[in-house]
């Protein structure tokens, strides 16, 4: 325990403060902004005011936290409602395993007629689009390589200019 002299109306009273109490708590509020010196006496009214302000700040922050929890609870209730409704409308996923729902690449085509004109037309168009995309990708790669080379040369010139 450390002792701090307190200024009353015309009197000085020693006040005990726990040594474990951080000095920032004593000097951290409005009194702290006045730069307390070891010779300056602390007023008990000021200490009470600091304690009241600290408590009020703590209560305000706790109320904010509780409001946040309450809003989250409402959100969870909404999510639970949506989850329950979805489970009612959608059949049990165990009835249809993923292998049945998602066709795997390389699986034989079952019940798909590939001899129709529409399928052949779409397949040809798909092939043409893939070819166009590959050409565009190749062109973009060449442009990127040229830009990279230009940037390299510019950086080299800048370095050479700085060294001369």
Automatic annotation (TrEMBL):
Main location class: nucleus
Keywords: Activator, Nucleus, Transcription, Transcription regulation
Protein's cellular compartments: Nucleus
Entry keyword Lipid metabolism: no
Keyword Transcription regulation found: yes
Pfam families: Med30
Family listed: Belongs to the Mediator complex subunit 30 family.
Biological role: Component of the Mediator complex, a coactivator involved in the regulated transcription of nearly all RNA polymerase II-dependent genes. Mediator functions as a bridge to convey information from gene-specific regulatory proteins to the basal RNA polymerase II transcription machinery. Mediator is recruited to promoters by direct interactions with regulatory proteins and serves as a scaffold for the assembly of a functional preinitiation complex with RNA polymerase II and the general transcription factors.
Name this protein carries in UniProt: Mediator of RNA polymerase II transcription subunit 30
């Amino acid at each position: 325990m450390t002792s701090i002299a307190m200024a009353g109306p015309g009197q000085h009273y020693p006040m005990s403060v726990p040594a474990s109490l951080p000095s920032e708590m004593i000097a951290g509020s409005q009194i702290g902004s006045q730069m307390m010196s070891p010779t300056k006496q602390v007023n008990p009214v000021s200490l009470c005011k600091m304690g009241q302000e600290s408590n009020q700040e703590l209560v305000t922050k706790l109320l904010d936290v509780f409001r946040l929890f309450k809003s989250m609870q409402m959100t969870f209730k909404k999510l639970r409602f949506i989850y329950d409704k979805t489970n009612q409308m959608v059949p049990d996923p165990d009835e249809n395993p993923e292998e049945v729902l998602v066709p795997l690449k390389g699986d034989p085509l079952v019940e798909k007629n590939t001899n129709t004109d529409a399928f052949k037309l779409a397949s040809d168009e798909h092939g043409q689009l893939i070819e166009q995309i590959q050409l565009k990708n190749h062109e973009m790669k060449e442009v990127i390589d040229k830009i990279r080379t230009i940037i390299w040369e510019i950086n080299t010139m800048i370095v050479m200019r700085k060294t001369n």
